[in-house]
């Protein structure tokens, strides 16, 4: 709680200074909370994005903000801080070579198994505003129109509650769906509704029924054990240091089925130490091997 002696509210035009000590303290809090590694190059981004949080709280300096984050009421604000610092850039069928691999080689045998009663699970880890898991759902339905009648589910998670709320609603402005084909928009979307911006589209009931959304911190405990046949974790680990990345790759291997598939971002690479756990299948596409890596 902010005491009665807290600094007066700053104006919108003012930008608080961020000392090296306060930046180091914030970096530690962010890393402990989310695994995100704030390097010195991110200092300007921190000032820009968290300056808004200081104004909302009536704080004029980052030292007071650090004390607030560590206080009894800081848990909720730590969540808002992570939301402010993370960049949610996504789109439907982003990195289309991954969806080509899914359509042509990864999903067909899984769906054949599903037709005979097999359980199929996919995880969109760091799903942002939902375009990725809904792209997976559309792909499944294009390959198997009756997918909703089988034991096929997509888990979609993110650390940011705000983007999960957007993803659950499944309503997107016209520019967000521009890359979709007319047939995809016709078959898998409906009008956004009276409360949505003009021209918006909402994901239809079919693909929505395949996706379950949840808030998950990837570096914290996971409220599930898998196993997953496919995991997409794309353009997420770039925010983590190498040790955290290595731990995450190891954990993904543990919840993947034998021969399960992992897709990562275009600028990301698996740590060499976990190399024995995976076989490269294409550009940033890996399959879990049967070997075990030294931890």
Keywords summarizing the entry:
3-stranded antiparallel β-sheet, Rossmann fold, 17% strand, 2 domains, alpha/beta, globular, 295 residues, 7-stranded mixed β-sheet, 10 helices, Chemotaxis Receptor Methyltransferase Cher, domain 1, disordered C terminus
Task: Please provide a written account of the structure.
The protein has helices spanning 20-34, 43-57, 62-70, 74-85, 96-115, 131-143, 161-169, 182-188, 205-209, 242-255, and strands at residues 120-125, 152-158, 171-172, 189-191, 201-203, 211-215, 228-233, 256-264, 278-282, 285-288. It is an alpha/beta fold and 295 residues long. Strands 6-2-1-7-8-10-9 form a seven-stranded mixed β-sheet. Strands 3-5-4 form a three-stranded antiparallel β-sheet. The longest helix is centred in the middle third of the chain and has 20 residues, at 96-115.
């Amino acid at each position: 709680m902010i005491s009665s002696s807290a600094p007066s509210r700053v104006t919108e035009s003012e930008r608080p200074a961020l000392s090296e000590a306060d930046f180091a303290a914030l970096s530690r809090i962010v890393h402990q909370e989310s695994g995100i590694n704030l390097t010195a190059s991110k200092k300007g981004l921190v000032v820009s994005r968290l300056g808004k949080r200081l104004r909302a709280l009536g704080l004029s300096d980052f030292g007071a903000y650090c004390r607030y984050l560590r206080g009894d009421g800081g848990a909720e604000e730590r969540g808002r801080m992570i939301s402010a610092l993370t960049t949610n850039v996504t789109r439907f069928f982003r990195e289309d070579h991954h969806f080509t691999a899914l359509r042509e080689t990864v999903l067909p045998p899984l769906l054949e198994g599903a037709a005979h009663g097999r359980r199929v699970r996919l995880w969109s880890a760091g799903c942002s505003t939902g375009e990725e898991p809904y792209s997976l759902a559309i792909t499944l339905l294009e390959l198997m129109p009756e997918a909703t009648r089988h034991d096929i589910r997509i888990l979609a998670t993110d650390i940011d509650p705000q983007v999960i709320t957007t993803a659950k609603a499944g309503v997107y402005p016209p520019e967000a769906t521009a890359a979709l084909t007319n047939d995809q928009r016709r078959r898998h979307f409906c009008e956004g509704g009276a409360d949505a911006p003009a021209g918006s589209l909402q994901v239809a009931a079919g693909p929505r029924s395949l996706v379950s959304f949840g808030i998950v911190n990837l570096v914290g405990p996971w409220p599930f054990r898998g196993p997953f046949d496919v995991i997409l974790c794309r353009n997420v680990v770039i925010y983590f240091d190498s040790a955290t990345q290595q731990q995450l790759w190891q954990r993904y291997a543990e919840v993947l089925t034998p021969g399960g598939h992992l897709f990562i971002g275009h600028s990301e690479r698996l740590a060499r130490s976990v190399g024995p756990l995976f076989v490269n299948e294409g550009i940033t596409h890996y399959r879990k091997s049967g070997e075990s890596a030294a931890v």
